Amino acid sequence: MIPEMGQFALALAWALALVQAVLGLAGAARGSVGAMAAARRAALAQCAALVLAYACLTAAFLRIDFSVLLVAANSSTRTPWFYRLTGVWGNHEGSMLLWALSLSLWQAAVAGFSRSLTAAFRARVLGVLGTVSVGFLAFLILTSNPFERLVPMPGEGRDLNPLLQDPGMIIHPPLLYMGYVGMAVAFAFAIAALLSGRMDAAWARWSRPWTLTAWVFLTLGILVGSAWAYYELGWGGWWFWDPVENASLMPWLVGTALLHSLIVTEKRGAFRSWTVLLAIGAFSLSLLGTFLVRSGVITSVHAFATDPTRGVFILGLLALTVGVSLLLFAWRAPRLSGGGVFAPVSREGSLLVNNVLMAAAAGAVLLGTVYPLILDALQGAKISVGPPYFETVFVPLMAPAVVLMALAPFLRWKRDALARVLRRVGPELVGALLLAALGVWAAGHATPGAYLGLALTAWVALASLRLLVERLRQGAAPGLAARLRGIPGSWWGMWLSHLGVGVFILGVTLVGALEQRLDVKMMPGQAAELAGYRFVLRGVSEVPGPNYTAQRGEVEVWREGQMRTVLVPEKRAYFRSAMPMTESAIDWGVFRDVYVSLGDPTGDGGWVVLLFYKPFISWIWFGAILIALGGVAAALDRRYRRLARRRDSVPVPEVLPEPVAEAAR
Amino acid sequence: MTARGKRLTLILAALALLGGATALVLSAMRENLVFFHTPSEVAEGKAPFGRTFRIGGMVVDGSLERLPDGVTVRFAVTDTAKTIPVVYRGALPDLFSEGKGAVVQGRLGSDGVFVASEVLAKHDENYMPVEAQHAVDQAQRAAATLKP
Lengths: 665, 148
Hints:
The complex is a heterodimer of chains A (665) and B (148). Chain A has 665 residues and is of the alpha+beta class.
């Protein structure tokens, strides 16, 4: 009964989304207060229906109801309850349901927390979001029903893909989806601006906290996915330029550009068309990511579907979204033109250049990701574009962007003189170049790449420090604490995120330059040396797990004659699938990770053991966390809330007269 | 400078930047494309020497052999028509096994042995041609259904 209830709730959600889309868009166009209020209620109801549908599927998993095909295919009686909980989204149908649920949560949030918006504007945003929802729920209902029954009911299920049976996988998909789907809100704001022809500073202030929130989710989702790849795949890498990784990086890059473009739109009224285009781009790339990851065109842990109709459906939705929004853009964007004039050397100028660089990087990643697919589809030629391409392209595009990123906050709006700015931060610039030289000398690794990385890090760190000092000197309030408190959240957001980029680059540079790896055959009792550490394999024994049997190695890690720790890497064989699984063991540290994983048994009692020494890899995660924290700080800026309060206290007419709505009639 | 002049400068600068980026992308693409060749193509000498490429097929049953150092392995990859010997130093991915599909990246040695730098580790246990996949799925589903 419960699965049928879920299916009914899904159908109901689709109908509600349709109501929301029609009433929202038509109500705003006609200025009907009743229709707009109904659209808002429909959004809340749609969310409730999807929560119910999701709860029904979760219940089926928790009760181990193998009469549901999805449960039988993705769990077993021995799967621990928390992996049955994540098994809900560890498959195509369930993950698309999670997608739809995330979208409806965002819609409910817009419906609930947007009192600062005018009713007409909110109705348009909800109308656009409802339209997206209609498309995706139709996809779910028509091609990927998660509640399909299995007759006859099997006695045992096939268990969840062992790679997904990992704590990281409990939080990675929801975070990433909230990020992907959150870009839909930025998109809806942009489309609503095109529809209404209204795109002013207030619009940017409304749009920015939503975009920031989605971007924070996306950042954290990518971070968790990367950390998972690092410790779960057993190969010690943290980024492989795999198409599924690129799929999440592209909307992140464009989303980052969008955040910055929004600043200019808010403060100077410029870049309006560009902002709209970026919002459309970010969401389109999210959809493209969904297509790449879920359609099965790429073989990976994320590709559950091999049914071609599904891929075609998502591709159709993507084409429709891009096509319609670009048409709308071409038609309405001329209305948005105008805005502040600025000189090339100015804060606007630097933000523009960085926007172009970021978009170009996203384009280059896009090309490298889809080119093999297109060539395969057109000519049947099999090629692949590997990490060297992405590294060759990405570094030269991003390095100047990072230099400018740290410089831009020192520039004045509108017009500035390069000489003035260089006088201000000249010492930092020279200091960074010298520090980097010192760094590569100290590390004994003098390559151009390492020097560039260290120089960028040092520049970002010194410039950030200088920026903080100048900011504190500026304040009128007496006392350091008062001045610190006086700095707005968005400033802290900028400062933390930019500093995070520096920390991230340091991690990437040092782990790339100084990591060491040794693949070695070890007999029990034998030792191996790497990077000043001595590894002794005590032995390998068989250990039972809940739904697997593991070969567990015990490896002593010694340094300077002292045993530091014992690492226990495993090679697991899961009962329900033939798939062996490497479970690496890591001694985490702030300045280095020591990483051990088991390869294959050599047949004579020995094992191939993979040993890694990974200096500063944690700094990659620290950097990403700082970047995300910056986003949180900026989203919580008082000015966004102050605006909301002001709107509350001063009664504003529910429907503002909108010239475009008039003209459209 | 007039407002129009400033805007023109900016647009030109942006275009120059984009042009540079495009040139960079195209040259990187030309240098770093990795082509895929079947064992038959390699046997016919159609694969490039001295350049990295990929071959793929099934790992021949009984061909996997570990050299005395314990870490270097030899195996053969076949497309059922032709077979190419491969040598690889390092730990094999979890999903590598005899009789299963595999893709390896590396260079062809002058002795006709393919020196692999990478044995591709796909995240999925079902890394094989779609048709075989379908058959296996059907069989697994039937087995799961038959169990009491």
